[in-house]
Amino acid sequence: MSGVLTGLAVVGSIIALGWMLRRTGVLSGDGPGVLNRVAFSAATPALLFTVMSRADLADLASPHMLGAVAAFAGAALTYAAVSALAFRDGFGRTVVGMTSSGFANNNNIGLPLTLFVLGDVHYAAIVLLMQTVLVTPAFLTALIAASGGTPSLRRILVAFVTNPIVLASAAGLTVAALGWSIPEMLMAPLDMVAATAIPLVLLAFGASLRGARPLGAGSPVPQVLTASAIKCVVMPAIAYAVAAWGFGMSGTDLFAAVLVAALPTGQMVFSYTARYGVAVTLARDTVLITTLGCAPVMVVLALVMA
């Protein structure tokens, strides 16, 4: 219980600091945008490279990995079905809604939370690996397409293969697959830059809330509430069904699978949408609502399953 509360308090305090920095004028003008661009172009790639290069690729075929894929797919498809029936949104907003419904905040909350609660970051790292290898490339490709109207296949491919997030992830996985050992003099600065990724994204997110009214004018409220409900309630339920009934998990393994699925929408969804200017308000408001709404869900899970 204390681990859940501690993890949420850490994230919330940094978001609040970002809001305060914007409120007091320290982050004025395009300050939040600068933070986002630094996170997108340098800090997050460094983080993903360091994580991927040290990953155990055997986890790609583990039950936790397959369960994470199923939970994400179930959440995303649930949103897509609701959107098709009720919202009839365009491609970009639908993709952002689908991703917001299933992309878990493993970096900022998942890693510290699983460490505090379970004493092991392995479970969150598996989902981080899945999201990096499978979800992020597809999401970024969709954002590139949505931001440019109807771009050519060549433009999408060029933008995709020159994307720092994709390049860093691919490089890290290559290092892990080949079993290379990166010299400490190279990894040390990468680790230092990687350590700034989470604070930068959280500060940028908090700063973006200054002057904004979540669920206020201009916010796609039905879409935000739908994505938030799916992320907070439906996705953990899917994860439980898949883990318990599909893979026969129990005890700590089952609790870990459900707890990670109950994480709020990752700030990276907001960061990516802000980078490409696609459905930014939907992503921002869903991140905020799920960060608040998933807290009681995770507390209940800790009480019932831990």
UniProtKB/TrEMBL annotation:
Keywords: Cell membrane, Membrane, Transmembrane, Transmembrane helix, Transport. The chain crosses the membrane at residues 34-53, 65-87, 121-144, 156-180, 192-212, 224-248, 254-274, 286-305. It holds the Pfam family Mem_trans. GO terms for biological process: transmembrane transport. One of its GO terms (cellular component) is plasma membrane. Signal peptide: none annotated. It is a multi-pass membrane protein. It is found in: Cell membrane. Belongs to the auxin efflux carrier (TC 2.A.69) family. This is AEC family transporter.
